[in-house]
Amino acid sequence: MKLDTSHMRYLTNEDFQVLSAVERGSINHEVVPTSLIHQLSGLRSLSGTNRSIGDLAKLKLVSKLRNAKYDGYRLTYNGIDYMALKTMLNRDSLYSVGNTIGVGKESDIYKVSDKNGVEKVMKIHRLGRTSFHTVRNNRDYLRKNSKNGANWMFLSKLAAAKEYQFMSLLHSRGFRVPEPFDHSRHIIIMELIKGFPMTRLRKHQNVPKLYSDLMKFILELGNSGLIHCDFNEFNIMIKDKLDGSDPNDTGFIVIDFPQCISIQHQDASFYFQRDVDCIRRFFKKKMKYEPKTDSTLLDTDGFGDGYKYPYPDFERDVKRQDNLDELLQASGYTKKHPGDRDLEDAVQGMRDAEYHSSDEEEDAEIPEGYDSDADEYYDSEEYDNEDSEEESDEGAEEEENERIIEAL
Ligand code: ADP
Ligand code: MG
């Protein structure tokens, strides 16, 4: 889904109050009755509320729904985008929205700037995106199991909140993850990693150390109580340039955390091993690097800090040293938040389906939706030229977004 900010400048304060009322009313109502919207908005005249509702509906920030008993409105994705952007604009963590830099399976990623002109990344969670091929199964699951039907917006908010909490704690503990800056509803603002996903990597100054560092990351995360569960070349960024201050720095940063689980999860061992295998497979196939399986090897990379075994094993190697899972109430550990279970099932269901279906394909490492031509393309030297052409196309849109947000 595209981020549509083009209507923002037309909204009045009253419109905003009414939109906010629809959002609050949605907590308990799938369809928010007009009388409740009016009551929550705090506006004096009902005709004022109705006028705003009409304007918001025209701009597709709310949509009209009928149910058996009454007519009412619900917030659309445009509406919730607007609410989140407005909140972050008010907090000064966001100033302008730029180009899309990535479209994930369950998210849209934009380059944004704060008011000091510092570039950052905005990740908008969009669970239930129809282009994703397993979505139908998961929708059915949610329809059957969730009280209010398939509430993708609720799950997107939950996914963003979870990701923000995980990133905040992991970053504060020195894990190599982007610094998170702000979070509202289904949107996160974080550090921009100037680099590229590892899937495009074919050369690196120290392949064995990069491999070893990644395995150590999985292990240290496990020792802290957590498993990433989607640890693969698409969710590892490699920095373009290293600052040179640490000659041992292999330049990787791990992203994408909504599906993390606790090491106390019943399938912890399976997911841990799958993370390890993804890295192992990538290095073997694309980097032509496969360390020996000899478990007597004490140091695989010759740097003295390498992991003892080439392939970490959950049962043998994970030794709890910290309880980040308990701090985060990661799924598999607590049922305190009722939505966690749905989130876990929805997100994990998508990931698993993807692994499963790609296993059946010839080239098991390229998930559905990933453009394998693009991979070739990034390796070629033409990439830079094409990229700048695309940028000039999107330049106008970027300017428009900037202008709109400044006008708010
Ligand atoms: P999804 O959950 O949809 O897979 P990701 O968090 O993996 O979303 O992000 C999708 C893509 O966006 C990544 O593969 C990467 O190219 C880009 N991206 C995400 N976060 C950042 C970041 N902090 N800095 C730079 N690029 C990023
Ligand atoms: Mg990802």
Automatic annotation (TrEMBL):
<feature type="compositionally biased region" description="Acidic residues">
    <location>
        <begin position="359"/>
        <end position="401"/>
    </location>
</feature>
<dbReference type="GO" id="GO:0030688">
    <property type="term" value="C:preribosome, small subunit precursor"/>
</dbReference>
<keyword id="KW-0547">Nucleotide-binding</keyword>
<keyword id="KW-0479">Metal-binding</keyword>
<dbReference type="InterPro" id="IPR030484">
    <property type="entry name" value="Rio2"/>
</dbReference>
<dbReference type="GO" id="GO:0046830">
    <property type="term" value="P:positive regulation of RNA import into nucleus"/>
</dbReference>
<dbReference type="GO" id="GO:0000462">
    <property type="term" value="P:maturation of SSU-rRNA from tricistronic rRNA transcript (SSU-rRNA, 5.8S rRNA, LSU-rRNA)"/>
</dbReference>
<dbReference type="GO" id="GO:0005634">
    <property type="term" value="C:nucleus"/>
</dbReference>
<dbReference type="GO" id="GO:0005829">
    <property type="term" value="C:cytosol"/>
</dbReference>
<comment type="similarity">
    <text>Belongs to the protein kinase superfamily. RIO-type Ser/Thr kinase family.</text>
</comment>
<protein>
    <recommendedName>
        <fullName>Serine/threonine-protein kinase RIO2</fullName>
        <ecNumber>2.7.11.1</ecNumber>
    </recommendedName>
</protein>
<feature type="domain" description="RIO kinase">
    <location>
        <begin position="66"/>
        <end position="305"/>
    </location>
</feature>
<keyword id="KW-0067">ATP-binding</keyword>
<dbReference type="InterPro" id="IPR015285">
    <property type="entry name" value="RIO2_wHTH_N"/>
</dbReference>
<dbReference type="GO" id="GO:0005524">
    <property type="term" value="F:ATP binding"/>
</dbReference>
<dbReference type="InterPro" id="IPR000687">
    <property type="entry name" value="RIO_kinase"/>
</dbReference>
<keyword id="KW-0418">Kinase</keyword>
<keyword id="KW-0723">Serine/threonine-protein kinase</keyword>
<dbReference type="Pfam" id="PF09202">
    <property type="entry name" value="Rio2_N"/>
</dbReference>
<dbReference type="InterPro" id="IPR036388">
    <property type="entry name" value="WH-like_DNA-bd_sf"/>
</dbReference>
<keyword id="KW-0808">Transferase</keyword>
<dbReference type="GO" id="GO:0004674">
    <property type="term" value="F:protein serine/threonine kinase activity"/>
</dbReference>
<feature type="region of interest" description="Disordered">
    <location>
        <begin position="353"/>
        <end position="408"/>
    </location>
</feature>
<dbReference type="Pfam" id="PF01163">
    <property type="entry name" value="RIO1"/>
</dbReference>
<dbReference type="GO" id="GO:0046872">
    <property type="term" value="F:metal ion binding"/>
</dbReference>
<dbReference type="InterPro" id="IPR036390">
    <property type="entry name" value="WH_DNA-bd_sf"/>
</dbReference>
<dbReference type="InterPro" id="IPR018934">
    <property type="entry name" value="RIO_dom"/>
</dbReference>
<dbReference type="InterPro" id="IPR011009">
    <property type="entry name" value="Kinase-like_dom_sf"/>
</dbReference>
<keyword id="KW-0460">Magnesium</keyword>
